[in-house]
Amino acid sequence: MQTRVAAGTQTDWNGTHYEALLTPRETGGKFGAFASHAGPGDGPPRHRHPKSDEVFVILQGRLRFWRAGEASERTAGDIFYIPAGVEHAFVVVERARWIAILSPGGLESFFPTVAAQGLEIPRDLAEIKAIAAQFDMEITGPPLAVAGP
Ligand SMILES: O=C(Oc1cc(O)cc(O)c1C(=O)O)c1ccc(O)c(O)c1
Does CATH place domain 10-136 in 2.60.120.10? Predict the structure, then answer.
Protein backbone atom coordinates (compact mmCIF):
# COMPACT_ATOMS: atom_id res chain seq x y z
CA MET A 1 0.00 0.00 0.00
CA GLN A 2 1.31 3.46 -0.85
CA THR A 3 1.65 5.99 1.96
CA ARG A 4 1.18 9.65 1.02
CA VAL A 5 2.83 12.00 3.48
CA ALA A 6 1.99 15.61 4.31
CA ALA A 7 4.32 18.55 3.80
CA GLY A 8 6.53 18.92 6.86
CA THR A 9 7.06 15.17 7.36
CA GLN A 10 10.66 14.52 8.37
CA THR A 11 12.51 11.21 7.94
CA ASP A 12 16.01 9.94 8.60
CA TRP A 13 16.91 7.03 6.37
CA ASN A 14 20.12 5.49 5.09
CA GLY A 15 22.31 8.38 6.28
CA THR A 16 20.16 11.16 4.81
CA HIS A 17 17.60 13.49 6.41
CA TYR A 18 14.50 14.22 4.33
CA GLU A 19 11.73 16.80 4.79
CA ALA A 20 8.70 16.81 2.50
CA LEU A 21 8.15 20.42 1.35
CA LEU A 22 5.46 20.10 -1.29
CA THR A 23 3.23 17.15 -2.10
CA PRO A 24 0.95 16.18 -4.97
CA ARG A 25 -1.97 16.95 -2.63
CA GLU A 26 -1.11 20.67 -2.79
CA THR A 27 -0.26 20.75 -6.49
CA GLY A 28 -2.90 18.54 -8.08
CA GLY A 29 -0.15 15.97 -8.62
CA LYS A 30 1.97 18.30 -10.72
CA PHE A 31 4.88 18.74 -8.30
CA GLY A 32 6.48 17.28 -5.22
CA ALA A 33 9.55 18.59 -3.42
CA PHE A 34 11.73 17.60 -0.52
CA ALA A 35 14.78 19.00 1.26
CA SER A 36 17.65 16.71 2.21
CA HIS A 37 20.92 16.92 4.02
CA ALA A 38 23.67 14.32 4.31
CA GLY A 39 27.38 13.86 4.85
CA PRO A 40 30.20 12.72 2.55
CA GLY A 41 29.71 9.34 0.91
CA ASP A 42 25.90 9.32 1.17
CA GLY A 43 23.73 9.11 -1.91
CA PRO A 44 21.24 6.89 -3.69
CA PRO A 45 21.93 3.95 -5.96
CA ARG A 46 21.81 4.60 -9.70
CA HIS A 47 18.16 5.00 -10.71
CA ARG A 48 15.69 6.65 -13.03
CA HIS A 49 12.24 8.15 -12.71
CA PRO A 50 10.30 6.88 -15.74
CA LYS A 51 7.63 9.63 -15.58
CA SER A 52 9.10 12.47 -13.52
CA ASP A 53 11.44 15.28 -14.48
CA GLU A 54 13.70 16.22 -11.57
CA VAL A 55 15.50 19.42 -10.62
CA PHE A 56 18.06 19.64 -7.81
CA VAL A 57 18.79 22.98 -6.15
CA ILE A 58 22.02 22.82 -4.14
CA LEU A 59 21.85 24.94 -0.97
CA GLN A 60 25.13 24.01 0.69
CA GLY A 61 28.15 21.76 0.15
CA ARG A 62 29.13 19.72 -2.89
CA LEU A 63 27.38 16.90 -4.76
CA ARG A 64 28.92 14.76 -7.46
CA PHE A 65 26.30 13.75 -10.06
CA TRP A 66 26.34 11.02 -12.68
CA ARG A 67 23.76 11.44 -15.43
CA ALA A 68 23.56 9.14 -18.45
CA GLY A 69 27.27 8.33 -18.26
CA GLU A 70 28.56 11.85 -17.55
CA ALA A 71 29.91 12.97 -14.17
CA SER A 72 29.92 16.56 -12.88
CA GLU A 73 29.88 18.40 -9.58
CA ARG A 74 27.49 21.03 -8.25
CA THR A 75 27.88 23.38 -5.29
CA ALA A 76 25.74 25.90 -3.38
CA GLY A 77 23.62 28.02 -5.71
CA ASP A 78 23.79 25.52 -8.58
CA ILE A 79 20.92 23.67 -10.17
CA PHE A 80 20.92 20.27 -11.91
CA TYR A 81 18.21 18.93 -14.23
CA ILE A 82 17.43 15.29 -14.95
CA PRO A 83 14.82 14.58 -17.62
CA ALA A 84 12.28 11.81 -16.99
CA GLY A 85 13.64 8.37 -17.86
CA VAL A 86 17.33 9.32 -17.66
CA GLU A 87 19.52 7.22 -15.36
CA HIS A 88 21.30 9.15 -12.64
CA ALA A 89 22.93 9.01 -9.22
CA PHE A 90 24.77 11.35 -6.94
CA VAL A 91 27.07 11.22 -3.95
CA VAL A 92 27.76 13.86 -1.32
CA VAL A 93 31.37 15.04 -1.58
CA GLU A 94 31.21 17.77 1.12
CA ARG A 95 28.37 17.81 3.68
CA ALA A 96 25.44 19.13 1.67
CA ARG A 97 21.87 20.40 1.77
CA TRP A 98 19.73 20.36 -1.33
CA ILE A 99 16.14 20.46 -2.55
CA ALA A 100 14.82 17.96 -5.10
CA ILE A 101 11.73 18.99 -7.09
CA LEU A 102 9.96 16.35 -9.17
CA SER A 103 7.15 16.72 -11.67
CA PRO A 104 4.86 14.87 -11.34
CA GLY A 105 5.45 14.53 -7.58
CA GLY A 106 5.28 11.53 -5.27
CA LEU A 107 8.88 10.53 -4.49
CA GLU A 108 8.78 12.53 -1.21
CA SER A 109 6.60 9.73 0.22
CA PHE A 110 9.07 6.94 -0.65
CA PHE A 111 11.49 7.79 2.18
CA PRO A 112 8.96 7.70 5.06
CA THR A 113 7.55 4.46 3.61
CA VAL A 114 10.86 2.53 3.56
CA ALA A 115 11.99 4.05 6.89
CA ALA A 116 8.73 3.03 8.60
CA GLN A 117 9.33 -0.55 7.48
CA GLY A 118 12.89 -0.56 8.85
CA LEU A 119 14.35 -1.37 5.42
CA GLU A 120 18.10 -1.03 4.89
CA ILE A 121 20.45 -0.93 1.92
CA PRO A 122 21.99 -3.34 0.91
CA ARG A 123 20.24 -5.92 3.13
CA ASP A 124 16.70 -5.27 1.85
CA LEU A 125 17.51 -4.21 -1.72
CA ALA A 126 14.85 -6.42 -3.35
CA GLU A 127 12.08 -5.04 -1.15
CA ILE A 128 13.33 -1.45 -1.53
CA LYS A 129 13.36 -1.88 -5.33
CA ALA A 130 9.77 -3.12 -5.29
CA ILE A 131 8.60 -0.18 -3.15
CA ALA A 132 10.62 2.30 -5.23
CA ALA A 133 8.75 1.14 -8.34
CA GLN A 134 5.49 2.27 -6.70
CA PHE A 135 6.98 5.78 -6.40
CA ASP A 136 8.15 6.11 -10.02
CA MET A 137 11.72 5.04 -9.30
CA GLU A 138 13.55 2.19 -11.02
CA ILE A 139 16.80 1.32 -9.22
CA THR A 140 19.26 0.35 -11.96
CA GLY A 141 22.70 0.05 -10.37
CA PRO A 142 25.04 0.62 -7.43
CA PRO A 143 25.63 3.90 -5.59
CA LEU A 144 28.40 6.25 -6.78
CA ALA A 145 31.75 6.33 -5.02
CA VAL A 146 32.96 9.75 -3.80
CA ALA A 147 35.97 9.47 -6.09
CA GLY A 148 35.64 7.75 -9.41
CA PRO A 149 33.75 7.81 -12.73
O1 LIG B 1 15.51 7.76 -3.95
C2 LIG B 1 16.56 7.75 -3.42
O3 LIG B 1 17.34 8.85 -3.33
C4 LIG B 1 17.06 10.03 -3.96
C5 LIG B 1 16.54 10.08 -5.23
C6 LIG B 1 16.32 11.30 -5.85
O7 LIG B 1 15.84 11.32 -7.10
C8 LIG B 1 16.60 12.49 -5.18
C9 LIG B 1 17.14 12.44 -3.92
O10 LIG B 1 17.44 13.59 -3.29
C11 LIG B 1 17.38 11.21 -3.29
C12 LIG B 1 18.00 11.19 -1.94
O13 LIG B 1 18.35 10.13 -1.42
O14 LIG B 1 18.17 12.24 -1.36
C15 LIG B 1 17.10 6.53 -2.79
C16 LIG B 1 16.69 5.27 -3.19
C17 LIG B 1 17.24 4.14 -2.61
C18 LIG B 1 18.20 4.29 -1.65
O19 LIG B 1 18.78 3.20 -1.06
C20 LIG B 1 18.61 5.55 -1.24
O21 LIG B 1 19.56 5.65 -0.27
C22 LIG B 1 18.06 6.67 -1.81
Answer: yes
Contact 115, 11 (CB under 8 A): yes
- Give the pLDDT score at 148: 57
Domain ranges of the chain: 10-136
Q: Are 65 and 90 in contact (CB under 8 A)?
A: yes
Q: Taking CB atoms and a 6 Å cutoff, what residues make up the pocket around ligand 1?
A: 14, 16, 36, 44-45, 54, 100, 110, 121, 128, 137
Q: Whose CA is nearest to atom 17 of ligand 1?
A: 44
CA distances 98 to 31, 34, 78, 141, Å, are: 16, 8, 10, 22
ipTM: 0.95
- pTM for the full predicted model: 0.96
